[in-house]
Each structure stands twice: as C-alpha cells, then as structure tokens.
Amino acid sequence: MYTNSAIRPLIDITKRARETKTILFYERDKVQEICEEIKVLKQATEEINDTESTSEEVHTSSGKLCVYNAMKEKELNAIQLYHFQRIRKTKEAACKETRLPQNEFNRLTNWEQTFYNKYEQLIDNYNSNCPKSLYLNDELHVPKEPHVVVRVMENLERVMTKNGIVEFLKGSQAVVREADSTIAKLINSGYLKKINK
C-alpha cells in the first residue's frame, strides 16, 4: 500500500523528464495519490501518539512510528524531486531566446505558467540592462581554425608558430592550431601525431 508502489512511477517519470528536452504533462494523479498516502501515514502516527500504551506496546509503537516517518520522508522526497525537476525545466525554457511553444506551455500547471512568465520577464529585464558585448543568450560557434591535440614523437627545441614559440618534448601532448603551416608540416613529417579525442 505504501511508498514504492506509489513513488516508483513518479521517480521514473522524473528520470525520464530529466532526459527529455521537452516539458512533460504534470502527473496530478500520481502526486495526489502520494499526498493521500502521506495524510494516511500522518493520521496513523497521530493515533499512535495519542494512545496510552503499556511498556511492551510503547516498544512496538515506537518501531511503527519510525517506519511511518521513514515512509513519509521517502514520499515527500519523491514529490520534492519531481517538482524540483519541473521547476528546473521551466527555468531552462524561460532562459531560451524563443518562447516556449504553446503545446508545451499548456503542459504546465497554472502555477508553473505564472512562474514561467515571471521568470522569463526577469531574464528579459536582466538582459536588457546588460551591455550587448555581454549578451548571455548568444550561441557559441566553432572557431574557424580549430585546435587539435597532438602527441610529440621526437624532441623539438623551439618551433616558431603563428601563436609564438613552442617547445615540444618527446612523449608530451600539446594543443595546437591545425591550420598553422608549421604545425601541418610537423604532423606530415611525423614529428607530431594527432590524437583523436
């Protein structure tokens, strides 16, 4: 009746939601079921606390209290994890430059929709006060002259590259610009070997 039967599906949904890029529908039935179990456990603990017991019954009732409290804690943690994941997804969606599509926006609860709108407004206000050179939503682009990792096959004293003088020691690794003609010659002649990572 308690814990795993109710919280396992919610934990599985939370894991799946973490891996997807879209926002899933709110699992109201599962959350409500767990909340009802928490109420039942709370009532059971209150009944145990209210009853007067003999010394033997105190021992068993304290064991029951411990188990009930552990189950309540586990169920509360599952609900908090689920809601934390939804908040995180909502924040990520609000931080994007494009607005959340209407079908995903409709998957949010009323509270989450309000949170999304306010958080999006907060981000927009922050970005409008930032200088354009510090604009946070700009996408990063691959550099025009990508760097490669190379392993040095033979000792080279000082090598003049476009980035300056570099000393290569046998067996070491270095990050160099592949488009540099000096580096390309060293790779072709076998002094350096590209490492695929």
UniProtKB/TrEMBL annotation:
GO biological process: DNA strand elongation involved in mitotic DNA replication
Keywords: DNA replication, Nucleus
SUPFAM superfamilies linked to this entry: GINS helical bundle-like
Cellular localisation: Nucleus
The family this protein is said to belong to: Belongs to the GINS1/PSF1 family.
Assembly mode: Component of the GINS complex.
Protein name according to UniProt: DNA replication complex GINS protein PSF1
